[in-house]
Amino acid sequence: MIVILRHDAAAEKQEELVCWLEAQGLKIQRFDGEFQTAIGLIGDASRVDVELMSGLDIVEKVCRVSEPYRDCSRKHHPQDTVVNACGVPVGGGHFAMIAGPCAVESEEQIVSIARAVKAAGADLLRGGAFKPRTSPYDFSGLKAEGLKYLRVAREETGLPIVTELMDIRDLELFEDIDVIQVGARNMQNFDLLRELGKTRKPILLKRGLANTLRELLLSAEYIMASGNEQVILCERGIRTFSDYTRNTLDLSAVPMLHELSHLPVIVDPSHATGIARLVSPMALAGTAAGADGLMIEVHNDPMKARCDGAQALTPQAFAVLADKVRRVRETVMA
Ligand code: PEP
Ligand code: MN
Question: How far, in whole angstroms, is CA 117 from its chain's centroid?
């Protein structure tokens, strides 16, 4: 980290700042220019309060040289991480297709969708049993019963299951769940992230509605710093001033996250667009951008879906998309 001082910074104030930094275990290197002085911080500056320092009267600017995250950073781990989602590899050239309904609605529904997406080539089955809903009056999932139906669907198809955990108090219900999803609204539920870091479950971490990539990576860091290295990042669209789509799919997040981190990155075009007919083009775009997988909402009868019907593909449309995704991958990888 480099601190650039204002040209009129009083000597005693500079000395106070240097003492404050040294007291935090840092070594200081001064660069005295003709008009300005800069201070280089040597050592682990990750705990320095950058906002506090930037606000000081004698400080003009603070520049970070290294990122505040470590375990998820590519600098510290150059090789791609391959997450093992119950036998399905994700990342490092392994592409995972995750498909299923927004919410588990009945045993019949989840089993029939699981069979259809499996036949179309899906690698993992998704389905929410605990649903975060904006309104408290909306369907909030079948909870433990939903998990039971997901297990039945797994037995019937062999597809490992991905489902969202909203509250750490429910963790024991998730003991045999293959991949735990942390939803966009919980991306910065730090206590939840820390607890999931103590498990050895693969975690699918969705980007928050208004979160930066640095914040997403710091959330991944919470999980990893607690001991769990099995994290998959998911770009699912962010809030912008876009008026015709549910969110804006930030596709440049895919290559940028790959540059910054060794963790696999998948794209969820369903929540990003909110409109079924936009899901396929954006899924293909995400694939071409180098995603390590896709998460697609599929419903056998979207008109009757209890949640997110507008963005659900039918199993037939999913099969067509899955085939196109394979072809885009062949082209991009060639
Ligand atoms: C979901 O995957 O069903 C979901 C609720 O997604 P998000 O957290 O991205 O809104
Ligand atoms: Mn949904």
Answer: 23
Which ligand lies nearest to the CA atom of residue 295 in the structure?
A: 1
Measuring from each residue's beta carbon to the nearest atom of ligand 1, which residues come in under 6 Å?
A: 102, 128, 132, 183-185, 206, 236, 271
pLDDT in tens, 45-99: 888 999 999 999 999 999 988 888 999 999 999 999 999 999 999 999 999 999 9
In whole angstroms, give the CA distance from residue 4 to residue 6: 7
What is the reported pLDDT for 217?
A: 98
Question: What is the 134 CA–ligand 2 centroid distance (Å)?
Answer: 12
Rounded to 5 degrees, φ, ψ at 261 are -135, 155
The alpha carbon of 108 and the centre of ligand 1 are apart by a number of angstroms equal to: 22
pLDDT above 90 (res 149): yes
Q: How far apart are CA 330 and CA 334, in angstroms?
A: 6
As given in the structure block, the two tokens for residue 159 are 């597809």
Spatial distance between the Cα atoms of 84 and 320, rounded to a whole number of angstroms: 27
Flag whether pLDDT at 166 surpasses 90.
Answer: yes
- pLDDT score recorded for residue 234: 99
pLDDT reported for residue 334: 84
Helix (H, G, I), strand (E, B) or coil at 151: helix
The single residue listed with the structure tokens 């009083």 is 10
State the Cα–Cα distance between residues 237 and 190, nearest whole angstrom.
Answer: 21
Across the range 216-245, mean pLDDT stands at 98
Report residue 136 as tokens.
């408290």
The CA 274 to ligand 2 mean position distance, Å, reads 9
Domains of the chain: 2-63 (3.30.70.1140), 83-333 (3.20.20.70)
223 CA distance to ligand 2 middle (Å): 23
Sort strands 2-5 and 37-42 into parallel, antiparallel or unpaired. Answer: antiparallel
Stretch (H or E) spanning 102: none
Q: Give the closest residue (by CA) to ligand 1 atom 4.
A: 183
User: Please, are residues 325 and 317 in contact by the beta-carbon 8 Å criterion?
Assistant: no
Separation CA 144–CA 174 (nearest Å): 9
